[in-house]
Amino acid sequence: MIEINSVKNTKIKEIKKLLQKKYRHEENKYLIEGFHLVQEALQGNQAYDYLLATEKAYDRLLELANIDDRKVIIIKDVIAEHLSATKNSQEVFMVLNINQPKTFSFEYGKWVVLDNLTDPGNVGTIIRTADAAGFDGVVLSKESVDLYNPKVQRSMQGSQFHVQVIQMPILEALASFKANGFPIYVSVLDKSAKQLNNCAPVPQLALVIGNEAHGVSKEVVALADKKIYIPIKGQAESLNAAVAAGIMIYHFS
Q: Where, by residue number, does the polypeptide cross the bilayer (predicted)?
């Protein structure tokens, strides 16, 4: 265990940079913040480089999980505030390794595929919902918001440690799904598509959710085995992407 007292410390400067996408992917590391996320990471036996905490936060952490003191950095409140991506620091942080496979084969199960979703809250909420519904994982297209964005991490609430979450080219992912016999179900705003409540549950599928403003891309729609939509009964033009995804995820769970 070591102590750091200044925001000008080289190690703190390096960790602070992980709040930016460019540096996260250069260093292949990312930062999480808050007791719940850190506890989930510890309980999930996630590999990590450092656990940073104020003295008060560290004492609380000792009650929650076994901690490797060789990786602990005790920090002052001013450093916690400096590193925080939120208005009020939660006083505990963890630096983890980005662990994305270079290749991946989808063999069985139920997956959500996100096509160019850009809102961190929506992406995190969908991943959390997929976890709650017992789905096997989530694929984010390369054009979607970065999985390691602090807002996405907070919205997932630890579900990133329970289900597989992969960020890769969407057409490559869908090709793999098709090669392994997965039906591709695509959500569209089109009344010529099949209503969700007329779709029977299936043992495996890739469920595609599109961009908040523009929906699913034409290239992806062209690959659909089935196009589906949620009927709108009131005057709203459409549903929020995360809400729509949640309805469909639980329908097929």
A: none
